[in-house]
Design a protein that fits this description.
This protein is an all-alpha fold. Helix content is 75%, strand content 0%. It has 3 helices and no strands. The longest helix has 21 residues.
Length: 68
């Protein structure tokens, strides 16, 4: 784990979004970074496609846990 320096304005955007989305500031920043990383790796996918893909992946992981 490390420290990431971000612009004060972006930090404020993260803080506001975290309040709306009921996430911690760190969790909101992680969410945006993960979605951004996936969007760069999959430029043809929309935000909704990316979220759907992640939900399906989480469902598969949960199924694996239940089988174990």
């Amino acid at each position: 784990m490390g420290i990431v320096k971000i612009d004060d304005e972006l930090h404020e955007d993260i803080r506001r979004a975290s309040t709306v989305m009921c996430r911690s500031i760190n969790a909101q920043a992680e969410f945006w970074m993960k979605i951004g990383k996936l969007a760069e790796a999959n430029p043809s996918l929309s935000f909704n496609d990316i979220v759907k893909m992640q939900m399906e992946r989480a469902d598969l992981s949960e199924t694996e846990i239940q089988v174990a």
